[in-house]
Amino acid sequence: MTQQALGGLMGYSRSAIAMIEAGERHDVERLSMLVPLCQALKVDLQEFLSAPVPGVEIDPSRLRELRAVFGPQGLPPPGVVGPEQVRAVARARESHAVTGDAIEVYRTILRALHHAEDRIGSHRGLLRASEAHLGTLREWLADGQREPLVRPLGLLTAEYGQFCGWMAYDQRNSRHAIALYADALEDVEQLVDRNGDGASDGDLAAYLTGNLASVEIGQEMPGSIARAAGSPNPAALTRAEHAEALATTARSPHARALILADVSWVYGLAGPDYHDRVASLLDHAAEALDEAEQEDAPPWAYWFDLTMLQRRRARGLVQIGRHQEAQVELRRVLAALPRELVRDQVITRGYLADSLISTGDADEAARLLSESAALLRRAASRRMEGRLRGLYGRLLAHGGNAAVRELGERLRALRHES
Q1: Which among 310, 305, 300, 294 is positioned nearest to 347, based on CA atoms?
Q2: pLDDT at residue 350, rounded to an integer
Q3: Which pLDDT belongs to residue 32?
Q4: Are residues 262 and 365 both part of a single domain?
Q5: Same domain for 205 and 275?
Q6: CB-based contact 140:153 (threshold 8 Å)
Q7: Is 166 within 8 Å of 177 (Cβ atoms)?
Q8: How many CB atoms are located within 10 Å of the residue 15 CB?
Q9: Residue 162 is part of which domain span?
Q10: pLDDT tens for residues 69-100?
Q11: Per the confidence metrics, is the pTM higher than 0.90?
């Protein structure tokens, strides 16, 4: 395949492909290129990540060992686990007796999966791999393990369940997301019942409760994250109130800030009657994060920092109609976000475009959404594709100028690729 043909399929120019191949271009995050590259070559991402690298000699017995230990769906990306780690997992699987070393291997894999998902989105291959690992951990729990290992194994199982639930939600599979979140919450609640409310146990239970409320409240209205007066889901609101109560007693200030900020999303979708509550929760989240140290964040909250809180605050401001403040905040967030976090770039542009449409600036909104549609070729997120299409529908009401037409063409191209 020529450089021009490959570039056309991936959305890059021929010269850009040439520079990347020659190692002369360093502004491209390699992981964010995997999605369009796999689409262009018509290969499965999981197979691509786990396949031997051409030109690098791989012992066939090593590959067979990886497949035997982790299964064809759960192969870790190259370089994530070494021979000793593979043997630790193999011994645990053969004996059904978990060791601390085996648990640590799966935590290492989870960190690698998080890193990949941050950059290429909720790709189906990542969800398949994560669910394969989740299945192994659940089997170990069901087998019964030595008392000192039950808690770390249970927590890690719940963290995998939370991660899988998030990816299912981002793929717009709400039913599967709810099932995964609910199972993970049950895992943690059993630990709390068994061992008392340890810091990680109770905080993770609160986070998962908020996750469930976020899915149960339902998808936001097409084309807007604000919701008019209506009848919000009472079960979701009850769960959100429970998550809020749990968050106020969270041991980790970092976890408390994240949970309160996430719960504010649920109230923002519940309509104008809850606007004061949204603002109050976001203020309390900011106070909690001021107390926190980033290095003390729970492993499942590693990504939540001041920039992510600022985006959640701005999102809440959009939901309650304080658009001028929201737009200033969202522009700051866009300037601070690392370029390799492609989906986060798309999410932030989407919030800003939503607010701009509400204040009558359709042209800038169309430009931001066109940029987002182009970025989504590099990061899988059916949820964000759906949001862009809803915002496009709102823009059409303002007339079909050139910017809006370009956005429509890019969205059609996205639908064809997906």
Answers
A1: 310
A2: 95
A3: 52
A4: no
A5: yes
A6: yes
A7: yes
A8: 12
A9: 50-191
A10: 887 777 777 678 888 998 999 999 888 889 99
A11: no
